[in-house]
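Example 3.2
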Amino acid sequence: MAQFTEAVYTNGVFKPNKELVLREAQRVRLIVEALDDDADLGDRPAALRRLLTGIEGMGFFSRGRLPSRDELHDRP
């Protein structure tokens, strides 16, 4: 049985706006559609800029020599 409601996403948890008919720990499928989109979320160039800015700030790049293809695959 399909049930439709809106929910608020807070601290990693979806909180439905109304009571749902579900048993405890029941698995469900969610299709998430933002209702209050920011103006630039549909703007691919702006999204790409945000992504690249975030990647630059992560600082997880290797400082040493990268392994060769053979080293990665442990070839004899």
